[in-house]
Amino acid sequence: MADKYFDGKVTATGVTDPVDDALKAQHAETVANYTEAMEKMLFSNAFTEVFKLVSRANKYIDETMPWKLAKDEAAKPRLQQVLYNLCEAIRTVAILCQPAMPDTSAKICSLLGLSEEAKAWDSVGKFGSTKAFSTGKSEILFPRIDIEKELEKLEKEEEKRKAEAEKAAKKAEKKAEKHPSAAAAEVTIDEFAKLDLRIAEIVACEPVEGADKLLKLSLKVGDESRTIASSIREWYNPEQLVGRKIIVVANLKPAVIRGVESKGMLLACDNSDTDCRLIFADDCEPGKKVR
Protein backbone atom coordinates (compact mmCIF):
# COMPACT_ATOMS: atom_id res chain seq x y z
CA MET A 1 0.00 0.00 0.00
CA ALA A 2 2.92 2.32 0.67
CA ASP A 3 4.17 1.78 -2.88
CA LYS A 4 0.71 2.06 -4.43
CA TYR A 5 -0.54 5.19 -2.71
CA PHE A 6 2.62 7.05 -1.66
CA ASP A 7 5.30 5.84 -4.10
CA GLY A 8 7.01 4.05 -1.21
CA LYS A 9 7.60 7.27 0.74
CA VAL A 10 5.93 7.10 4.17
CA THR A 11 6.13 9.87 6.77
CA ALA A 12 4.24 10.77 9.93
CA THR A 13 1.39 13.16 9.13
CA GLY A 14 0.21 13.75 12.67
CA VAL A 15 -3.34 12.60 11.88
CA THR A 16 -3.73 10.37 14.90
CA ASP A 17 -6.49 8.39 16.54
CA PRO A 18 -6.90 6.94 20.05
CA VAL A 19 -6.44 3.45 18.58
CA ASP A 20 -2.81 4.39 17.87
CA ASP A 21 -2.13 4.62 21.60
CA ALA A 22 -2.60 0.86 22.13
CA LEU A 23 0.06 0.07 19.51
CA LYS A 24 2.45 2.61 21.04
CA ALA A 25 1.82 1.21 24.54
CA GLN A 26 2.57 -2.32 23.34
CA HIS A 27 5.74 -1.04 21.69
CA ALA A 28 6.95 0.49 24.97
CA GLU A 29 6.04 -2.63 26.94
CA THR A 30 7.75 -4.93 24.44
CA VAL A 31 11.00 -2.96 24.42
CA ALA A 32 11.11 -2.82 28.23
CA ASN A 33 10.32 -6.51 28.76
CA TYR A 34 12.65 -7.59 25.95
CA THR A 35 15.53 -5.60 27.41
CA GLU A 36 15.00 -7.04 30.89
CA ALA A 37 14.77 -10.63 29.59
CA MET A 38 17.90 -10.28 27.44
CA GLU A 39 19.88 -8.88 30.37
CA LYS A 40 18.89 -12.00 32.33
CA MET A 41 19.71 -14.17 29.28
CA LEU A 42 16.10 -15.39 29.14
CA PHE A 43 16.15 -15.46 25.35
CA SER A 44 12.91 -17.37 24.88
CA ASN A 45 11.06 -14.86 27.04
CA ALA A 46 12.62 -11.98 25.13
CA PHE A 47 11.40 -13.18 21.74
CA THR A 48 7.97 -14.00 23.14
CA GLU A 49 7.70 -10.27 23.88
CA VAL A 50 8.64 -9.46 20.28
CA PHE A 51 5.79 -11.54 18.95
CA LYS A 52 3.38 -9.74 21.26
CA LEU A 53 4.18 -6.61 19.30
CA VAL A 54 3.70 -8.49 16.03
CA SER A 55 0.30 -9.69 17.24
CA ARG A 56 -0.71 -6.17 18.30
CA ALA A 57 0.33 -4.77 14.90
CA ASN A 58 -1.88 -7.35 13.18
CA LYS A 59 -4.78 -6.29 15.38
CA TYR A 60 -4.01 -2.63 14.59
CA ILE A 61 -4.49 -3.40 10.88
CA ASP A 62 -7.93 -4.84 11.61
CA GLU A 63 -8.81 -1.82 13.74
CA THR A 64 -7.69 0.88 11.30
CA MET A 65 -8.75 -0.88 8.07
CA PRO A 66 -6.22 0.85 5.76
CA TRP A 67 -7.88 -0.69 2.70
CA LYS A 68 -11.00 1.30 3.58
CA LEU A 69 -9.06 4.50 4.18
CA ALA A 70 -7.47 4.12 0.74
CA LYS A 71 -10.87 4.52 -0.93
CA ASP A 72 -11.34 8.03 0.50
CA GLU A 73 -9.04 10.71 -0.87
CA ALA A 74 -9.70 12.89 2.18
CA ALA A 75 -8.48 10.08 4.44
CA LYS A 76 -5.08 9.77 2.72
CA PRO A 77 -3.23 11.67 5.48
CA ARG A 78 -4.70 9.27 8.05
CA LEU A 79 -3.79 6.30 5.84
CA GLN A 80 -0.20 7.48 5.64
CA GLN A 81 -0.03 7.83 9.44
CA VAL A 82 -1.39 4.29 9.86
CA LEU A 83 1.23 2.93 7.44
CA TYR A 84 3.91 4.93 9.24
CA ASN A 85 2.88 3.43 12.59
CA LEU A 86 2.99 -0.08 11.12
CA CYS A 87 6.43 0.57 9.61
CA GLU A 88 7.64 1.75 13.01
CA ALA A 89 6.36 -1.46 14.63
CA ILE A 90 8.04 -3.55 11.92
CA ARG A 91 11.29 -1.58 12.34
CA THR A 92 11.23 -2.33 16.07
CA VAL A 93 10.62 -6.03 15.42
CA ALA A 94 13.53 -6.14 12.95
CA ILE A 95 15.95 -4.56 15.42
CA LEU A 96 14.86 -6.78 18.31
CA CYS A 97 15.10 -9.94 16.19
CA GLN A 98 18.60 -9.11 14.95
CA PRO A 99 20.45 -11.32 17.52
CA ALA A 100 18.46 -14.43 16.49
CA MET A 101 17.73 -13.71 12.81
CA PRO A 102 20.45 -11.36 11.54
CA ASP A 103 19.84 -12.03 7.83
CA THR A 104 16.06 -11.61 8.08
CA SER A 105 16.50 -8.49 10.20
CA ALA A 106 18.81 -7.00 7.57
CA LYS A 107 16.30 -7.75 4.80
CA ILE A 108 13.48 -6.03 6.70
CA CYS A 109 15.61 -2.97 7.37
CA SER A 110 16.52 -2.84 3.70
CA LEU A 111 12.86 -3.14 2.63
CA LEU A 112 12.01 -0.23 4.93
CA GLY A 113 14.87 1.87 3.55
CA LEU A 114 16.30 2.50 7.01
CA SER A 115 19.35 4.63 7.62
CA GLU A 116 22.12 3.42 9.91
CA GLU A 117 20.74 5.71 12.59
CA ALA A 118 17.24 4.20 12.28
CA LYS A 119 18.68 0.68 12.59
CA ALA A 120 20.61 1.45 15.77
CA TRP A 121 19.56 -0.07 19.09
CA ASP A 122 19.43 3.38 20.71
CA SER A 123 16.60 4.37 18.37
CA VAL A 124 14.30 1.49 19.24
CA GLY A 125 13.05 2.88 22.54
CA LYS A 126 11.15 5.83 21.07
CA PHE A 127 8.17 5.12 18.86
CA GLY A 128 8.08 7.64 16.02
CA SER A 129 11.79 8.47 15.98
CA THR A 130 12.14 7.57 12.29
CA LYS A 131 11.77 10.58 10.01
CA ALA A 132 10.56 8.64 6.99
CA PHE A 133 10.42 5.21 5.40
CA SER A 134 11.33 4.45 1.83
CA THR A 135 9.83 1.05 1.20
CA GLY A 136 11.32 -1.16 -1.47
CA LYS A 137 9.78 -3.92 -3.54
CA SER A 138 8.25 -6.40 -1.12
CA GLU A 139 9.34 -10.03 -0.95
CA ILE A 140 8.23 -13.09 0.99
CA LEU A 141 10.54 -13.42 3.99
CA PHE A 142 9.11 -16.71 5.25
CA PRO A 143 7.90 -18.84 2.32
CA ARG A 144 5.19 -21.38 3.04
CA ILE A 145 6.70 -24.81 3.62
CA ASP A 146 5.44 -27.75 1.56
CA ILE A 147 5.31 -30.36 4.32
CA GLU A 148 5.16 -33.35 1.97
CA LYS A 149 8.16 -32.16 -0.05
CA GLU A 150 10.14 -31.40 3.10
CA LEU A 151 9.39 -34.83 4.56
CA GLU A 152 10.37 -36.47 1.28
CA LYS A 153 13.60 -34.49 1.28
CA LEU A 154 14.35 -35.50 4.88
CA GLU A 155 13.65 -39.17 4.09
CA LYS A 156 16.05 -39.07 1.14
CA GLU A 157 18.72 -37.42 3.27
CA GLU A 158 18.23 -40.07 5.97
CA GLU A 159 18.50 -42.87 3.40
CA LYS A 160 21.66 -41.28 2.03
CA ARG A 161 23.10 -40.97 5.53
CA LYS A 162 22.36 -44.62 6.29
CA ALA A 163 23.87 -45.76 2.98
CA GLU A 164 27.04 -43.76 3.67
CA ALA A 165 27.24 -45.16 7.21
CA GLU A 166 26.86 -48.73 5.92
CA LYS A 167 29.49 -48.07 3.24
CA ALA A 168 31.90 -46.71 5.83
CA ALA A 169 31.26 -49.69 8.12
CA LYS A 170 31.94 -52.16 5.30
CA LYS A 171 35.11 -50.30 4.38
CA ALA A 172 36.30 -50.42 7.98
CA GLU A 173 35.43 -54.12 8.19
CA LYS A 174 37.40 -54.94 5.04
CA LYS A 175 40.34 -52.92 6.32
CA ALA A 176 40.29 -54.87 9.59
CA GLU A 177 40.18 -58.17 7.68
CA LYS A 178 43.23 -57.17 5.64
CA HIS A 179 45.17 -56.39 8.82
CA PRO A 180 44.23 -59.17 11.26
CA SER A 181 47.52 -58.86 13.12
CA ALA A 182 46.72 -55.36 14.28
CA ALA A 183 46.12 -55.70 18.00
CA ALA A 184 43.12 -54.03 19.59
CA ALA A 185 43.76 -51.44 22.26
CA GLU A 186 44.33 -52.89 25.70
CA VAL A 187 41.60 -52.63 28.32
CA THR A 188 41.84 -52.93 32.07
CA ILE A 189 40.14 -55.70 34.04
CA ASP A 190 37.71 -53.10 35.39
CA GLU A 191 36.76 -52.05 31.86
CA PHE A 192 36.26 -55.66 30.80
CA ALA A 193 34.15 -56.31 33.90
CA LYS A 194 31.63 -53.75 32.67
CA LEU A 195 30.50 -56.23 29.97
CA ASP A 196 27.51 -58.31 31.02
CA LEU A 197 27.76 -61.55 28.99
CA ARG A 198 24.69 -63.79 29.24
CA ILE A 199 23.31 -67.00 27.78
CA ALA A 200 20.30 -66.36 25.53
CA GLU A 201 17.92 -68.83 23.90
CA ILE A 202 16.70 -68.05 20.38
CA VAL A 203 12.92 -68.54 20.52
CA ALA A 204 12.14 -67.05 17.11
CA CYS A 205 14.05 -65.80 14.10
CA GLU A 206 13.07 -64.05 10.88
CA PRO A 207 14.64 -61.96 8.12
CA VAL A 208 14.46 -58.17 8.44
CA GLU A 209 12.39 -56.77 5.59
CA GLY A 210 14.42 -54.66 3.18
CA ALA A 211 17.77 -55.80 4.60
CA ASP A 212 19.62 -58.57 2.74
CA LYS A 213 22.02 -59.38 5.57
CA LEU A 214 19.95 -58.90 8.72
CA LEU A 215 18.12 -61.44 10.85
CA LYS A 216 15.84 -60.48 13.72
CA LEU A 217 16.39 -62.81 16.68
CA SER A 218 13.82 -63.00 19.47
CA LEU A 219 15.65 -64.05 22.61
CA LYS A 220 14.90 -65.33 26.08
CA VAL A 221 17.49 -64.10 28.57
CA GLY A 222 16.40 -65.52 31.91
CA ASP A 223 12.94 -64.07 32.60
CA GLU A 224 13.47 -61.28 30.06
CA SER A 225 12.51 -61.25 26.39
CA ARG A 226 14.39 -59.06 23.92
CA THR A 227 15.29 -58.76 20.25
CA ILE A 228 18.62 -58.46 18.47
CA ALA A 229 19.27 -57.55 14.84
CA SER A 230 22.40 -59.21 13.47
CA SER A 231 24.00 -59.34 10.01
CA ILE A 232 24.38 -63.14 9.95
CA ARG A 233 21.75 -63.93 7.31
CA GLU A 234 24.50 -64.77 4.84
CA TRP A 235 25.59 -67.73 6.97
CA TYR A 236 22.45 -68.88 8.80
CA ASN A 237 18.83 -69.61 7.99
CA PRO A 238 16.21 -68.86 10.68
CA GLU A 239 15.37 -72.57 10.93
CA GLN A 240 18.95 -73.36 11.91
CA LEU A 241 18.86 -71.00 14.89
CA VAL A 242 15.52 -71.44 16.64
CA GLY A 243 16.04 -73.35 19.88
CA ARG A 244 19.80 -72.77 19.95
CA LYS A 245 21.55 -70.93 22.79
CA ILE A 246 24.11 -68.22 22.21
CA ILE A 247 26.17 -65.71 24.16
CA VAL A 248 25.13 -62.03 24.07
CA VAL A 249 26.41 -58.75 25.45
CA ALA A 250 23.33 -57.98 27.54
CA ASN A 251 24.14 -54.45 28.71
CA LEU A 252 24.92 -52.89 25.34
CA LYS A 253 23.02 -49.65 24.71
CA PRO A 254 19.96 -50.38 22.51
CA ALA A 255 20.01 -49.22 18.88
CA VAL A 256 17.37 -49.16 16.16
CA ILE A 257 18.58 -51.02 13.07
CA ARG A 258 16.29 -50.96 10.03
CA GLY A 259 13.28 -50.44 12.27
CA VAL A 260 14.25 -53.16 14.75
CA GLU A 261 15.19 -52.22 18.31
CA SER A 262 18.33 -54.25 18.88
CA LYS A 263 19.05 -54.74 22.60
CA GLY A 264 22.43 -56.40 22.77
CA MET A 265 25.02 -58.04 20.56
CA LEU A 266 25.71 -61.72 19.96
CA LEU A 267 29.18 -63.26 20.02
CA ALA A 268 30.50 -64.71 16.79
CA CYS A 269 33.80 -65.64 15.23
CA ASP A 270 35.27 -64.79 11.82
CA ASN A 271 36.04 -68.36 10.78
CA SER A 272 37.59 -67.14 7.52
CA ASP A 273 37.46 -64.13 5.24
CA THR A 274 34.09 -65.35 3.92
CA ASP A 275 32.65 -67.24 6.88
CA CYS A 276 31.23 -66.28 10.25
CA ARG A 277 30.30 -68.76 13.01
CA LEU A 278 28.15 -68.15 16.08
CA ILE A 279 29.41 -69.31 19.45
CA PHE A 280 26.74 -71.71 20.74
CA ALA A 281 26.21 -72.69 24.37
CA ASP A 282 23.37 -75.23 24.06
CA ASP A 283 24.15 -76.95 27.38
CA CYS A 284 23.73 -73.75 29.38
CA GLU A 285 20.64 -72.19 30.96
CA PRO A 286 19.28 -68.93 29.49
CA GLY A 287 20.09 -65.89 31.59
CA LYS A 288 23.22 -67.34 33.20
CA LYS A 289 26.26 -65.07 33.34
CA VAL A 290 29.30 -65.91 31.21
CA ARG A 291 32.65 -65.40 32.90
TrEMBL record:
Record-annotated TRNA-binding domain positions: 191-291
Assigned EC number: 6.1.1.10
Any one GO CC term of the record: cytosol
Catalytic activity, as annotated: tRNA(Met) + L-methionine + ATP = L-methionyl-tRNA(Met) + AMP + diphosphate
Keyword set, alphabetical order: Aminoacyl-tRNA synthetase, ATP-binding, Coiled coil, Cytoplasm, Ligase, Metal-binding, Nucleotide-binding, Protein biosynthesis, RNA-binding, tRNA-binding, Zinc
SUPFAM superfamilies per record: Anticodon-binding domain of a subclass of class I aminoacyl-tRNA synthetases, Nucleic acid-binding proteins
Main location: cytoplasm
Matches recorded under InterPro entries: Anticodon_Met, Met-tRNA-synth_bsu_C, Met-tRNA_ligase_1, NA-bd_OB-fold, tRNA-bd_dom, tRNAsynth_Ia_anticodon-bd
Cellular localization per UniProt: Cytoplasm
Gene Ontology molecular function, alphabetical: ATP binding; metal ion binding; methionine-tRNA ligase activity; tRNA binding
GO biological process, one term: methionyl-tRNA aminoacylation
rRNA-binding found in the keyword field: no
Residue ranges the record marks as coiled coil: 144-176
NCBIfam families for this protein: metG_C_term (TIGR00399)
Known role: Is required not only for elongation of protein synthesis but also for the initiation of all mRNA translation through initiator tRNA(fMet) aminoacylation.
Subunit description: Homodimer.
Protein name: Methionine--tRNA ligase
The organism of origin for this protein: bioreactor metagenome
